[in-house]
From TrEMBL:
Protein name: Peptidase S8/S53 domain-containing protein
Domain Peptidase S8/S53: 160-357
GO biological process: proteolysis
Region feature (Disordered): 1-23, 636-660
Gene source species: Cereibacter changlensis
Length: 660
């Protein structure tokens, strides 16, 4: 779930207002959707409505995250100008946040919506800021303020849990206090349409009281009908939901046997379902950052909490992995802002280190001057979603000029395109119906006003291999060939990463995982007794498979690997990612995500009170480590695999069910 920070004009060239190169993910999605002709289509496979019923007439709005050019500008001045710009809209929360947490020598930063297309009436306002990232256009109302809940008196908790996820069952018994009331102090249900809903403790308690006459399913369905467009697929109709299980592992408690944990308040942000379905991450990032800011504001500012631990059990494979992506930079900036509240306030962020070690999604290929190499790219049949590759040079290259790397792509039927592509519009490979089935993009390096320079990247995008609508572009499935050629006089260290396009459990999006291939990728694997191992001499590698969102520097950020717990032995789970010298930091620690080889995963709370769900992955490990930061759990300091489990591993969690 990841995309680089970029914006783009309608012709595919960089938009001078943003100063970034073309965003392959957003541009490719718009090309697949007919450049906005089908407003009802959206996401990695056009699987979800953009927030309105099919055929509805409504304007497109782009979520943008911006920074004022003048550091000394007061928040009131900036947002007064935003109000006068009719093509822009914002949630007044952004004003409140900047007033409370902006340091005097730092510029205003805000999450805005702007009308897609020309904005002649907003030129004066647009001159006041730079755009940090642009999200996927959505159909929504101009008013972005969520429906207010019942305000409450500050509770001054010593420590609290925050979560950003999907499908959070706020009525579950595991999230109640000893008196029967809810532990949720604030919950924000985000939507793409602007019909968001915010609940405070008294609101949730009111819904809990309704359980005497109505079921959980009825109450969740009623909320979905209020805030989502008809036909929106959301997690609260399923027996298991990712967010509920993560929150159970992180903070679920029986008030009678775990009074200390049951006393910890919960702050939650439930992401728009469509953004969670879009597993390339291009839609997700602005909502995650805004949700993180909202958690900080409601817990540390309004409720005067001393410490907030936020669980974000989401991640992506491809990215710069050096702390320069928008997500990483902005999360770190928000954490630094907390210092303005005083030394008695603290926020920690817990992330999943990644599950892609065995998925053949990363390759590393050294190239001397004039050298060439080839990689296989396996595009799966019956895939409703697009696939992406990112091609980058590591800092180990003798040159940083990615323009001197020739990249060609050859389809299974022999068609070929590419070469030494300059920045600008993408190179397109037409399919049988005349529409592009693949594209090659080059985004140049850039030096932002603040922070480190961002390196160039080439992105290869593939259309789905099965049609949703007549006339859709259709990609050939099978083995494509990615050709690499060093056209410079200096050595290159090239990394190719597949952007994961399958969906986190229990989502069902019609995605099938693309992966890399090479002759050296079929060695003997003793554990599975088949030829699936990677041989050392080949380009495919386990190293560097960590999540691209997990390289924010410590000390307040914790990327967690997954551990397999067996009697007398702790080891890294097979899927738990492995870092590399080019892929940022190793995991801060590990935590249990498997208790046996079969069945896999750990058992926790399902969506409804009587249900359970089994889930594996470093997302479950991150949730357990989140709990460990508030409630000390058993730890071992000698797991023997620091590149995947860090220097210590949490070995147990009382929230894990011992039997179905």
């Amino acid at each position: 779930m990841q995309t680089d920070d970029a914006a783009q004009g309608s012709d595919g060239a960089p938009d001078p207002q943003e100063g970034f190169g073309p965003n392959a993910y957003i541009d490719w999605a718009e090309r697949l959707n007919g450049a906005g002709e089908r407003a009802s289509a959206c996401g990695s496979g056009r699987m979800q409505a953009r927030g309105v019923a099919a055929g509805a007439e409504a304007p497109l709005w782009e979520p943008v995250f911006v920074r004022a050019r003048e550091a000394g500008m007061e928040p009131d001045t900036f947002f007064d100008a935003a109000r006068r710009a009719e093509e822009y809209s914002f949630d007044p929360f952004d004003l409140e946040y900047n007033v409370a947490l902006r340091q005097r020598d730092q510029p205003v930063e805000a999450f805005l919506y702007r009308r897609a297309g020309p904005r002649p009436g907003a030129q004066a306002f647009e001159a006041m800021f730079e755009v940090l990232t642009v999200g996927v256009p959505v159909t929504r109302t101009a008013d972005t303020r969520p429906a207010p809940g019942l305000r409450q008196q500050p509770c001054n908790p010593r420590q609290a849990i925050g979560i950003i996820d999907d499908g959070i069952a706020i009525l579950h018994p595991r999230f109640r206090r000893a008196c029967g009331g809810s532990r949720f102090r604030a919950a924000w249900f985000q939507t793409l349409t602007g019909s968001d809903e915010i609940l405070f403790a008294r609101d949730v308690d009111h819904e809990l009281a309704q359980l005497a006459t109505r079921s959980e399913q009825e109450l969740y369905a009623a909320r979905a009908a209020r805030i989502y467009a008809p036909g929106t697929r959301h997690a609260m109709t399923r027996a298991g939901s990712h967010g509920t299980l993560m929150l159970d592992l992180a903070a679920g408690a029986d008030p009678r046997s775990e009074p200390e944990m049951a006393a910890a308040p919960i702050y939650a942000v439930q992401l728009p379902p469509q953004a969670f379905d879009d597993t390339s991450g291009r839609m997700l990032q602005p909502y995650v950052v805004q949700g993180f800011r909202w958690l900080i504001y409601h817990s540390l500012v309004l409720d005067r909490c001393e410490r907030l631990v936020v669980n974000l059990s989401l991640g992506v494979v491809a990215g710069p992995k050096d702390g320069t992506s928008f997500m990483e930079r902005q999360l770190r900036r928000e954490m630094d802002r907390v210092r303005s509240l005083g030394c008695d306030r603290r926020v920690d962020l817990v992330l999943a280190y990644g599950n892609a070690r065995e998925d053949r999604l990363v390759a590393r290929q050294p190239l001397g001057p004039g050298e060439q190499a080839e990689l296989g790219v396996l595009i799966q049949p019956d895939d409703l979603t697009p696939s992406y590759l990112e091609v980058r040079l590591t800092r180990g290259s003798a040159t940083s000029d990615l323009g001197q790397l020739g990249v060609t792509l050859t389809a299974p039927d022999g068609q070929s395109f590419g070469g030494c592509l300059p920045p600008g519009p993408p190179a397109l490979l037409p399919g049988r119906n005349g529409r592009a089935m693949a594209a090659l993009y080059h985004r140049p390096a850039e030096t932002p006003a603040e922070g480190p320079a961002r390196r160039a990247v080439k992105t290869v995008a593939f259309a789905p291999t099965v049609r949703v609508f007549d006339g859709d572009p259709l990609c050939q499935s099978g083995r494509w060939i990615l050709g690499l050629e060093n056209l410079s006089a200096a050595s290159m260290d090239v990394v190719v990463q597949v952007q994961r396009d399958d969906s986190p459990f229990p989502r069902r999006t019609g995605a099938r995982q693309a992966r890399l291939d090479a002759e050296s990728a079929h060695g003997w694997q003793p554990s599975s007794r088949c030829f699936t191992a990677l041989t050392p001499e080949g380009p495919l590698t386990h190293a560097g498979t960590n999540s691209a969102w997990g390289t924010v520097p410590p000390p307040r950020v914790h990327a967690i690997g997954g551990a397999l717990m067996r009697p007398g032995r702790v080891s890294a789970a097979e899927y738990s990612a492995e870092g590399a010298d080019w892929s940022g930091l190793g995991p801060r620690a590990g935590a249990v995500s498997e208790t046996t080889r079969s069945p896999s995963g750990v058992l926790g709370a399902g969506t409804f009170a009587a249900g359970t769900l089994r889930l594996s992955g470093t997302s479950a490990a991150a949730a357990t480590y989140t709990r460990h930061m508030l409630q000390a759990l058993p730890v071992t300091h000698d797991a023997g695999d620091p590149s995947r489990l860090g220097t210590r591993t949490v070995t147990d969690n009382p929230a894990i069910r011992r039997r179905p």
